[in-house]
Amino acid sequence: MASFSLPTINDNPDGGWGPSSSNLPKQFKFKDIPYAPFSKSDKLGRFADWNDLSADGRQTAVGLPSTQNRAGPGGRRRDGAQAFGSGTASAFAYFHVEDESSFSLVDNRGAPPTRRGGGFNRGRGAPRGGYNTWGNRGGGQRGGRGGPGGGRNMNQRGGGRRGWRDWDKNNRTRESSVVVQPSWQVLEEIEFHRLAKLRLEVEEPEDLDSYGRLFAYEKTYDRITTKTERPLQLVDRIKYNTTTSDDPVIQQLASKSTATVYATDVILSVLMTAPRSVYPWDIVIVREGNNLFFDKRDGGPFDTVTVNENAADPPQDPTPPNPNNPQEKTVPEVPTINTAASLSLEATYINQNFGFQSVNEATPPPVDLAHPNPFYGDETEPLASCGYRYRVFDMSLSEEEQMKICVRTEVDAYLPGLGDPRQGKGLATIRALNEFDPRSQGAGGAPDWRAKLDSQRGAVVATEMKNNSAKLAKWTVQSILAGADLLKIGYVSRANPRDNSRHVILSTASMRPTDFSAQLNVSLANGWGIVRTVTDLCMKMPEGKYVLVKDPNKPMIRLYAVPMNTFTNEDDEEGGDYDDEQ
């Protein structure tokens, strides 16, 4: 019977796998042969891969598996996996000693670029279902250069123009709403993402007093359709937009220490919806003793209405001439009537006249509030329908703290049959959205109102909520601050897209401000948190004048400390009384 003996097992006293250097068999001299680390997952490749050439054309290594030869810089594989032991210098690799960079068995030069542009179909008049230059079958594309789907394939890489003057958008920068002087001191910089996290719950306000006269809203405007459009008329009325410090009623309330902070609903709504704003703005803040006044500059951004501020491609102003080459002829980008400045003035004109026109001054009779209009003097023009309600909101964080803000709010009309307007019942604010040219740059992809407003109103509203998110949020906040029951929004379009002087009313929508704020995702608690944060920053500073500026090109606001005489000489030269009459 054959005998069987177990083989000799050489134990490794040093620990680990494999034989140790002390008990290696003498017939196998492994001591002088270097050890190359390997992984069990590595696969055996070719002994010599002549197709695997380095950037200089020479063979990188012979005898290593092809997967390791094809590693990228730093030993990384092309598929992103790290080759085991690639960081260790391999002694088994063989390199050519002589310089043979000019010799190569395989032509590794790149293919010459084709003359065909990316995204174009093959030749003129590509057949239906032909191939494009990227090798994808363009099924259903008709021929014809420049035709829909035949001349250019918009979905392919590098094909077609993606937008209006995309190459020039990054170079455009907006100017600040106010010239920041070198002497102004930056006190605080707050990004919008930090403002969006603030919260403060504020209870129902206290009504102090009311001023002005209100006319009844004309209900026939609710029945206007695109087929029964009504022309927008020029109504000669006076409406005041006086800043906070110049309000005689607020001056009386401040002398009685009614509140700590004083502002108007126009200024406060911009501050409460600051994270939505794109265009620049500025608020002048004056601290006198323990009182804080939020003011606006005459002729500033608070006196006009923006258009498509939040659109992906908002309206642009003409590019200023090149100072280095004044003789350079610039191609006009958009018609003059469709620039951002022209559209803003047009929207302001539409808002004012729609509010003046949509009220009935005869029947039902107008309602006089507790006091007459505090800003009306010796003017001969009749007053517009407007009521001012002075309300106090409590922003205190505890019962021991006293932090109240007095706000002058505005309402534009009253709704008959919903209660006594003197008691704050049946009040309404009136605004207007405007359409200029759905095919123009800056339209934001808005559909044609005459074709879609009656049949697909939801699509029109959704587009306006996207393109004018900041403007609609400000209008909603103003209505809530004033305690209005309804917000009336008119849809006003140009009679001719090329004429910005004639407009028609296509429809009118009614909505409750609280419900509309939920649709817009407007948080009043977040707005009050922003107001309280800015108030705390200013109350920590000494008495003086400060300016809160929205950066024209970045989502942030900055608080500056400025001299007390800032903007005073400017107002005297320009005439502040003229800008107050809107």
From TrEMBL:
User: Where are the compositionally biased (Polar residues) regions?
Assistant: 1-11
Provide this UniProt record's keywords sorted from A to Z.
Cytoplasm, Initiation factor, Protein biosynthesis, RNA-binding
UniProt-listed Pfam families: eIF-3_zeta
Q: Where is the composition biased (Gly residues)?
A: 116-128, 136-152
For this UniProt entry, the molecular function terms from Gene Ontology, in alphabetical order, are: mRNA cap binding; translation initiation factor activity
Instruction: Please give the InterPro entries that the UniProt record associates with this protein.
Output: eIF3d
What Gene Ontology terms for biological process does this UniProt record contain? cap-dependent translational initiation; formation of cytoplasmic translation initiation complex
Localization recorded for this chain is: Cytoplasm
Of the GO CC terms on this record, one is:
eukaryotic 43S preinitiation complex
Question: What interactions and quaternary structure are annotated?
Answer: Component of the eukaryotic translation initiation factor 3 (eIF-3) complex.
Q: How does the record comment on the protein's domains? A: The RNA gate region regulates mRNA cap recognition to prevent promiscuous mRNA-binding before assembly of eif3d into the full eukaryotic translation initiation factor 3 (eIF-3) complex.
User: In UniProt terms, what function does this protein have?
Assistant: mRNA cap-binding component of the eukaryotic translation initiation factor 3 (eIF-3) complex, which is involved in protein synthesis of a specialized repertoire of mRNAs and, together with other initiation factors, stimulates binding of mRNA and methionyl-tRNAi to the 40S ribosome. The eIF-3 complex specifically targets and initiates translation of a subset of mRNAs involved in cell proliferation. In the eIF-3 complex, eif3d specifically recognizes and binds the 7-methylguanosine cap of a subset of mRNAs.
Q: What's the protein name?
A: Eukaryotic translation initiation factor 3 subunit D
Write down the species.
Schizophyllum amplum
